[in-house]
Design brief:
It is built from ten helices and 22 strands. The protein is α+β, with helices and mostly antiparallel strands. It has a six-stranded mixed sheet with strand order 8-9-10-5-11-12, with helices on both faces. A five-stranded antiparallel sheet has the order 15-14-13-16-22. Helix 2 runs parallel beside helix 4. It starts with 6 loop residues before the first strand and ends in a 27-residue tail after the last strand. The N terminus and C terminus are likely disordered.
Length: 407
């Protein structure tokens, strides 16, 4: 359980306690000149001290949404509330937020200490308090020995920590991160993800994080907001997104390698439901817990989805209850150390399987694959909706309440 800290907001020698940093978006729209809508009615409720990640492809509206929360972009319509007050017309400096940018935005002529202290000096904080806050943030981030250096003498990872430190000294109610790890190498990104998780636990503060990297999203977020074309597609925990994607976009976006999809239709057979591909050569029984509710879709076009890790080689697939065997040709093999990613072709269909590294798989050979029928998803071909989703679906726009006015 996280400690129930009471955070403080400081402005011009005035302080007020702020114990709740809930962030609520209701029907938020961002439209640019020319009628281009970057965000189309986004509604979201982020709980106090929650770590929420906005993720999606380039141009999906995630960074624009973050910038509207920060006040760096004006909203076209809708309402944004932070900590119990509507902030639509509140200046960014008065929103009780701190933002960490992708490029770190450090002043090159200033030392690390001065970069971290700059915002506090602008607010006329006493020198002893500035020194204490910077020292505390530097200790949290392990950069005590860098305070006299200038940014050009720092590595990318060190600059990133300074940027985070500059945010920490503000003691904001909410941290906003806009792809802060994009400029780091792969190893450092992993290390810094761990540090950000530790930081969230230590500060017990609301954090909203934007990334295009699904691994970052899955490892950091308490909940993840999937966006595409300005719309929120699904809001859920990492495990629920993986197990119960609400639609084709989410199913294809979450998972590495991506989910396999097959076009076909559903057929009723002796009280059961069967998926059959267009050529009639791949037949997959629908799990019993889904078959009954899919009766109305008999004869209709659907897409079957199955993740690469749920396609097995014959040895490991022999114990899969109700496994469906498909013979396919190996096209490409990618070794990942403990596993192999294998690309197959069967009757014009391409599949990706993720198997143990010791499974013999050579390019050009024919190989039996075992589909785990218990793990398949079925999507309506027209709407893209997941027909086999077991999690109760609600509109991402559902929010419980909004403050009535600016405090």
């Amino acid at each position: 359980m996280k400690t129930n800290y009471c955070l403080f907001y400081w402005s011009h020698n005035h302080s007020r306690s702020l114990c709740v940093a809930e962030v609520i978006l209701k029907d938020v729209v961002k439209e640019y000149p020319g009628g281009v809508r970057a965000v189309k009615g986004a509604s979201l409720e982020i709980a106090d001290r929650e770590f929420v990640v906005l993720v999606g492809p380039s141009g999906c509206g995630k960074s624009t949404t973050l910038r509207m929360i920060a006040g760096l972009e004006e909203i076209t319509a809708g309402t944004i509330a932070i900590g119990g007050r509507v902030v639509n017309d509140v200046h960014p400096k008065d929103r009780d937020i701190a933002m960490v940018f992708q490029n770190y935005a450090l002043y090159p002529h200033m030392t690390v200490f001065d970069n971290m202290a700059f915002g506090l000096k602008l607010r006329n904080f006493p020198k002893n308090e500035i020194k204490a806050r910077v020292a505390e943030a530097a200790q949290i981030l392990g950069i005590q020995d860098l305070l006299e250096r200038k940014p050009k003498a720092l590595s990318g990872g060190q600059r990133q920590r300074v940027a985070v430190g500059r945010a920490i000294v503000r003691k904001p109610a909410c941290f906003l991160f806009d792809e802060p790890l994009s400029n780091l190498d792969a190893k450092l990104r992993v290390e810094t993800r761990v540090e950000l998780n530790k930081l969230h636990q230590r500060l017990a503060t609301t954090m909203i994080y934007v990334t295009h990297d699904q691994i970052e999203a899955m490892t950091l977020g308490d909940r993840i907001v999937i966006m595409d074309q300005g719309l929120i597609q699904q809001v859920a925990s990492p495990l629920n997104l993986y197990d119960e994607p609400w639609n084709l976009f989410v199913a294809g976006f979450i998972g590495m390698p991506a989910m396999n999809f097959l076009d076909g239709k559903l057929e009723a057979s002796s009280g059961a439901m069967i998926f059959m591909d267009g050529g009639g050569k791949i037949r997959v029984p629908v799990p019993a817990d889904s078959a009954k509710k899919l009766e109305s879709h008999a004869g209709k076009a659907v897409k079957l989805g199955i993740r690469p890790e749920h396609i097995h080689d014959p040895a490991s697939g022999k114990d899969v209850p109700g496994g469906v065997t498909v013979s396919a040709k190996v096209d490409v093999v990618e070794s990942l150390g403990d596993t192999k990613v294998v690309y197959f072709t069967h009757d014009g269909h391409r599949f990706i399987g993720k198997v143990d590294a010791h499974v013999p798989a050579e390019v050009g050979q024919n190989m039996d694959l075992v589909f785990d029928a218990r793990k398949v998803h079925l999507f309506d071909a027209a709407s893209g909706q997941n027909l086999t989703c077991r999690v109760t679906q609600h509109q991402p726009a559902d929010v419980k309440h909004l403050p009535a006015a600016v405090a």
